[in-house]
Please model this.
Amino acid sequence: MITIILFIVLIIKFRFRFWADQPVFHVYDISYYLFYSGIINKSLPEKTRYTNFKEIETLTFGKNVKPLDQTRFIRFINKYYLRNNDNQFSPKESNIIPYFEGHNSASFLSFYKESLVLHDGKTGDIINTEKPIAVMTTRPVHVRLKKGTTSRFDAYYVDYLCVDPLKRKKGIAPQIIATHHYNQRILNREIQVSLFKREGQLTGIVPLCVFGMPIFSMKNWSKPSDLLAPYSLIECGTSNMHHLYDFLRDSTQKFDVSIMADPGNIMALMKSNNIFIYLLLEDKAGVVGAYFFKKSCTEIKKGEEALICFASVFSNNNNQSIFIHGFKQALSEICLKSRNENVYHHLVVEDIGDNDCIIANLKQKTWPSSVVPAAYFFYNYAHPTVHKNKVLIIL
Model:
């Protein structure tokens, strides 16, 4: 047994050298399985061979992120983030910046900059400048873990971790992750943990949860019939958002893990039409279900954007067939509302929370064109893996 564990340790340390040195729950950390769950490194981080303060700068949204920084960041993301054959991520500024607004804690942006020396052919002048070769952002989220007694803390969600394709496999990503984490801990000492979402292969880390993201073509789907009394559907907005949070306060108790952004951020995302939230109502009970959709800004095929259903919640007492019907009506309303601006051709449903019954129903008539494997994992926090349908994540 000891020999097997040592063999696993050696493989992980060789294949994933950076992650083997990081404060994460490695698959070979036996003591975390048996005795401990919580923050791994409570003290401030130390400088390591991965921290690079010369070429990496961490800025704070709303404080020292200048308009030029914002423009460079968005251009970089549009040029290099998720550019795989037909899959093209093409967001506008209005699809990115609202994700960093409305929070009660600071959000951060890091640049890895490379120095350039340019020669002006007309004047003969030598111009010293810089260009970004990697970026990374984090934004605060609230975490609730149910493990005997409920644990609550704030974490930073890592997003837009991207390296120039010509600079990949050169140790750039480990440097920006380590340096960003170091700077983030110094700039906000109240938050010690980060949360990553990874698609594809895991890096020897015990995930918080593992799930699939089936992609459905909506080509032959038709408008569903309206819900019958006593049920109805309404879109969530600023005037009725309190109903959503009243419902979530009670219904999320069934989940072992719930991770959510600040209500102010959710409101900013709704106002900017980046996320769409619909509530399923029953005349006497009030809200009995909620559906969360996100504009992906990603084309699955040329000219065919995908809409993402990233979460859903329904009351344990609710009829599942009504819940699925409400989902289809919400989806139809989003597609009809967006028709003048953009037509969604594909639907991605993250198999997490209460989305499992929705996926099972959709598969009865439409088989997914593909399923993308994904996982969430903590950085600087040890927690055992939780079943995907016992996890609710609203970001």
About this structure: The radius of gyration is 22 Å.
